[in-house]
From TrEMBL:
Pfam families: DUF1858 (PF08984). InterPro entries: CHP03980_redox-disulphide, DUF1858, ScdA-like_N_sf. NCBIfam families: prismane_assoc. It comes from Mesorhizobium onobrychidis. Gene3D superfamilies: SP0561-like. This is DUF1858 domain-containing protein. It comes from the Bacteria. Residues 8-57 form the DUF1858 domain.
Length: 71
């Protein structure tokens, strides 16, 4: 199944839709896995809360998802 990355998806939706995204989240030092707020935070919200560059985070998540889809 082809997954699509959407900037308005919540972190929870992204991680459930593509477990490869979890690696990106953990590598960035984010604790979104299991966090009750992950079901409300978009990538933008999460980047802001963790003081990360939103464009870089989006790129890394998108790349992880696309790499998984091409396997």
């Amino acid at each position: 199944m082809k997954r699509k990355f959407s900037d308005d998806a919540t972190m929870d939706e992204i991680m459930h839709g593509s477990p490869a995204a979890i690696r990106v989240v953990l590598q960035r030092g984010m604790l979104c896995v299991g966090c009750p707020i992950a079901s409300f935070h978009t990538v933008s919200d999460a980047a802001r809360e963790h003081d990360l560059d939103e464009e870089e985070l989006s790129y890394d998540l998108r790349t992880a998802i696309e790499r998984t889809d091409s396997d």
